[in-house]
Each structure stands twice: as structure tokens, then as C-alpha cells.
Design goal:
Layout: E1 7-12, H1 19-35, E2 39-44, H2 50-55, E3 60-63, H3 74-82, H4 91-98, H5 100-109, E4 117-120, H6 123-133, E5 137-140, E6 150-153, H7 159-166, E7 173-177, E8 182-191, E9 196-197, E10 201-204, H8 212-217, E11 222-224, H9 231-248, E12 251-260, E13 266-272, H10 282-289, H11 294-303
Parallel strand pairs: 1-2, 1-3
Antiparallel strand pairs: 4-7, 5-6, 5-7, 8-9, 8-10, 8-12, 10-11, 12-13
Pathway: Cell wall biogenesis; peptidoglycan biosynthesis
Protein name: D-alanine--D-alanine ligase
Keywords: ATP-binding, Cell shape, Cell wall biogenesis/degradation, Cytoplasm, Ligase, Magnesium, Manganese, Metal-binding, Nucleotide-binding, Peptidoglycan synthesis
Length: about 325
């Protein structure tokens, strides 16, 4: 089957604030695919033009981009127009999942558990969110990942500074009720009825601070996979994660982030449709717990590459 992949492009780098992570992901995927005899090539979307992408004549591409202009539906739309099959979710699902506000609205409409929130656009909105949600609360830039643009507010005098800092990333922000509990993440792979969750991973970050440093640079964060959960609770968390994935319309692979409170109630935080594939990344960790190597995971993801928008047959004449 591998020879049927043809010439494969690995789209990485890009323009987002997560560029450095994407560079690591792309290099890892390249090495994995080449180790399987696949004709794979790196393509940095911030260095080369769309015309250059079309000229490469890739038979399919593996998207190893994170954040804006790679995970948010923009690149997916380009690939649909070019007719190049690509990994991961389509235009709509990528765009929805990238916007944490829209994600929460869909989950709530579907009856899925997610913390209370308010949309804030100015300092008055921020004060109103504090009055309604209490402290601590989280202020997030809804279009960023890797905890960029995310601030925990524990004291009233921190509110305005958190808003001002997060505003450097987005004009419209998300204020979210802070859930105290265990931090979990669940990789999900597949499409539609075939979508399934990999083992639940628990994250133990220093002082509970799972920020960019503790995700990608430091070795101080500890992970437990599978997480130490009662089997029925783990199954319920996996089921909720798959429901969240399907509600957005995701396919290929993604990672769902959840907080588990003291009453063992899971709360959905966000979903990442182009998760990291670095040495510190969690989707490969979940796959490994099921006996799937990093290279086999990359091949599986690549095997599901497709265009998602149906192309009607041209009319005769």
C-alpha cells in the first residue's frame, strides 16, 4: 500500500506563533515516513508560495502545521482548490475547532460538558465575566494553541493585565470558568463511525502549569499513559472525547483536552485538529500505549488523506 502514496509533501513551518513546534513535527514526520520507504519531502509554507506548492505535484500531503494558516481551515481550502488530498480535518471542522468560542457553542448545543464562559472584547466585559464566573478563571485567545495567549487569573488585580496580554493574540477573547482537577488529554483517530479514542493520558505539570515551556522545552512535566482511572470512567471519558470530535466534524486525527473535577465529571476544554508530532507530543504517546509505533502512526494518518469537498461532474457542452 505504501507505494500507492506517490510523492508526499509534508507541510510544516508556516507563519503562526507555533512555527517552532511545527518545524519539529515536520522533521519527525519526514524521518518516520522515509523510514517506511515513502517518497516524502518537506515544504515550508512560510518560505515557498502556493504556486510552488502546486508545482511540486504532490500526490498527497501530510499537514504538520499548527495554529493559524495551517490548522484553521485556510490551507485546507487551498488544498481543496488544488485537488491535493490532505491529512486531518476539512475546511469547516478545522475552522470551527481553531475557534475555541465556536467549539464551545457547538459542544453546548450537543449537550456535551464544557466549563461556563463569556466572550470578552474590552475591560468592561472582563469585569462582567469576573462577576459572573468568579475566580480563578482562564482568559484565552480563541485562535491560538500550545497555551499561547492563555492566562490564569487568581486575583482581581490580575484581570486587566491578563486581558491586555491576551489581546496581543486576538481581538475577541474567551473568559472561562477554571476547573480544579486532573488534566487529561485524549487522542482520537479515524472518521465518522470508525472514529475511536486512544488511551487517556494524564498530565502532571510543575505546579499545575502546563504552559509552552512545560509542553515543548522542559523535561519536568510527567505523563501517565494510560491514566490511572477506573475502567468505566476511562471509557466514559473516551466516549465523550469521540462525541466531541464527531460534533465538530473532525477526521484523521485530533487531540481532545479535558479537566476531570473532584466529582469525576469530565469537562471539555478544546480540541486540536493538527496536534503536535514532536518528541514531547501526546498523540504518539497514546498510540504507543496501544502498540503502534510513531512511524506506523504517521503512515496511518497519511493513509487517510483525502479531499473532503465533493467535486460535481462538469456539465456537457
Amino acid at each position: 500500500m505504501i507505494h500507492e502514496f506517490g510523492k508526499v509533501g509534508i507541510l510544516y513551518g508556516g507563519h503562526s506563533a507555533e512555527r517552532t513546534v511545527s518545524l519539529q513535527s515536520g522533521e519527525g514526520v519526514l524521518s518516520a515516513l522515509q523510514s517506511k520507504g515513502i517518497d516524502a519531502h518537506l515544504f515550508d509554507t512560510s518560505v515557498h508560495s502556493l504556486a510552488a506548492l502546486a508545482a511540486q505535484n504532490f500526490d498527497r500531503v501530510f499537514i504538520a502545521l499548527h495554529g493559524r494558516y495551517g490548522e484553521d481551515g485556510t490551507l485546507q481550502g487551498v488544498l481543496e482548490l488544488l485537488g491535493i488530498p490532505y491529512t486531518g480535518s476539512g475546511v469547516m471542522a478545522s475552522s470551527l475547532a481553531m475557534n475555541k468560542i465556536m467549539t464551545k457553542r457547538i459542544w453546548l448545543e450537543q449537550g456535551l460538558p464544557t466549563p461556563k464562559y463569556k466572550v470578552i472584547k474590552n475591560l468592561a466585559d472582563t469585569d462582567a465575566a469576573y462577576a459572573e464566573l468568579g475566580l480563578p478563571l482562564i482568559i484565552k485567545a480563541p485562535h491560538e494553541g500550545s497555551t499561547l495567549g492563555l492566562y490564569k487569573v487568581s486575583q482581581p488585580d490580575e484581570l486587566h493585565e491578563a486581558f491586555n496580554q491576551a489581546s496581543n493574540f486576538d481581538h475577541e477573547l474567551l473568559a472561562e470558568q477554571f476547573v480544579v482537577g486532573r488534566e487529561l488529554t485524549i487522542p482520537v483517530v479515524g472518521k465518522g463511525d470508525d472514529a475511536r479514542a486512544l488511551p487517556v493520558i494524564e498530565i502532571f505539570a510543575p505546579d499545575g502549569n502546563y504552559d509552552f515551556e512545560h509542553k515543548y522545552i522542559s523535561n519536568d512535566t510527567r505523563y501517565e499513559c494510560p491514566a490511572n482511572l477506573a475502567p468505566e470512567l476511562a471509557s466514559r471519558i473516551q466516549e465523550i472525547s469521540v462525541q466531541a470530535y464527531r460534533a465538530i466534524g473532525c477526521e484523521g486525527w485530533a487531540r481532545v483536552d479535558i479537566m476531570l473535577d473532584a466529582q469525576n465529571q469530565p469537562w471539555l476544554l478544546e480540541i486540536n485538529t493538527s496536534p503536535g508530532m514532536t518528541s514531547h507530543s501526546l498523540v504518539p504517546m497514546g498510540a504507543k500505549a496501544e502498540g503502534m509505533s510513531y512511524a506506523d502512526l504517521c503512515v496511518f494518518i497519511l493513509s487517510q488523506a483525502s479531499c473532503k469537498i465533493h467535486r460535481p461532474m462538469p456539465e456537457n457542452g
